[in-house]
Amino acid sequence: MKKLTITLALLLVTALCTAQKKNTQHDVSCYDNGTLAAHQLEKTILDGASVSVNDELEVGKQVYDQMAEKYTILTSGEKYEKVLGIMNRLTAQISKYNNPSTNANFGQYKSHYKIYIIETDEINAFTAGARIFVTTGIYDFCKDDNELVSIIGHEISHNELGHIGYHLKRRKMAQGFFGGFGDLATLVGNVLTSPFGQTDEGQCDLFGMDLSKSAGFAPCHTIDLWERMAEKSGEKSFINLFSTHPYSGDRATCAKQHLSKNYSLDCE
Fold this sequence. Notes:
Layout: H1 2-20, H2 36-46, H3 53-70, E1 73-74, H4 78-91, E2 114-118, E3 125-128, E4 131-135, H5 136-141, H6 145-160, H7 163-174, H8 184-193, H9 198-214, H10 221-232, H11 239-244, H12 248-263
Parallel strand pairs: 2-4
Antiparallel strand pairs: 1-2, 3-4
């Protein structure tokens, strides 16, 4: 009887914890440029291929090695401690949410996240295999911690929502579906240069704002960031960032809608 009582108590605690997880309402149609249906169909097909967290982590390590050869990477100092603290606060929120995606690996990256600052004036941030790279250019462009949160939360979301995995699944299918990934250097190059797509970028904005709000930051600052980026999008330093993030004006509008609908926040 005692064992039964303990088991029932554990099941009750588990049920309560599960019930308390938040559902995220992501209206990705706000970002639709006419390709949403095709994008969703591709994901349905790609979900038939399997990519493990370890597969993604290995690609992340290779990306780090490539960046370390090309740039000075900061892993200490005031700027680094700030982005590390922000990342840790945001990743702590992931377990509070139900899986808003079809990524079977959602929630399994938490212990693997690492963040780096790359010394370059280029305005950019990117991620692979739970490794997040923030340039000094985009760090300095952000006016405050809340804008940095927008950038870091967005990159965390690429991992949690399976977008890195989808790149690897495409490669696996190209190698014969059940084959390997082929040449790793080529794969890493594809991950770094291939755009995620408008709806994926949009969903990362939305889930990033969810994490930001849950961690106690001010997600309305996301809107200020994208509006300023839209104004600067013609400048050379923004070319790489906007090659994969091509719709900053729409991002500000969609962010406002998300925060108003889900959190009753009226961002001006």
